[in-house]
Design a protein that fits this description.
alpha/beta, Nucleotidyltransferase, domain 5, 2 domains, five-stranded mixed sheet, binds zinc ion
Amino acid sequence: MKYVLAADVGGTNIRTALIDPAGNIVSEQRQQLNLSACGNSAQHIVATLVSFLQPQAKQATAIGIGFPGFFHGQTGVLAASPNLPALQELPLADILKERLGCSVQVQNDALCAALGEFHFGAARKSDDLLHITLGTGVGGGLILQGKPLYGEGGMACEFGHLCVNTNVDAALCACGKRGCLEAYASATAISFLYHQRTGKTLDAFAIYQSACSQDPAAMHLFSEAGRYIGEAMATAVKLLDIRHITISGGVTGAWEILQPSMIDALEDHVISPQQGHVSVSLSTLKDQGGILGAASMAMGLI
Ligand SMILES: [Zn+2]
């Protein structure tokens, strides 16, 4: 059997999986990997990645990798990675190909999640897709007319940095701007805002549990996040006239609280001919979208 090796590189861990041509995960590994701890050395970061991938690469015909950074189209050249400033204009795919001895495709992690949905998940029958990832940060990937949209600098669909609040005291985002969606709807933001509003320190999951016990501050945070997500979705729908939106990520655990305000805001903000025509669905791939999207690149599906 010919397998591809897919990898999803996160902020603190890496998932690798051997995947068969039908998209079935044959074997999978999750390991701690903190590339930020490699310091300011691109060589060290690459060597660390190679050492993680090498054992499984021997069984694979090709490798696909979702990576937190911006890539120049399909070239595999990493333009920049906000969390790994040592990596700039790095031909990552070519370097890994030489070290690992087989074909390597590398792409932005959120775009990989969109590709996973598009090829193996809820969006298989659509030509256009907006996929949103709601996790530690908020990301997005766009497929238009069957093809991923990269953008000139690999930064197409920075969905988390759409501005949803223009007030001068709007929440501050990690990007340095105020009012970004990520500053309201990421797990980090939900925890930060809850602390700001109640004085209590809880992670997003504990805040969700608190919301389920009718904690008004917690309930308000999730419905506010849902409203802002819906408004940002409406912006994308008006710009692109897409009809399929999928969502994944840890924050979607609070779906039953997020969804009503999200759909209300989406329908309120699109133009009337679009009302009722946009389907918003949870990922059917759970947390496997990114790795399956990486596999789809290795299989040559894009
Ligand atoms: Zn931002």
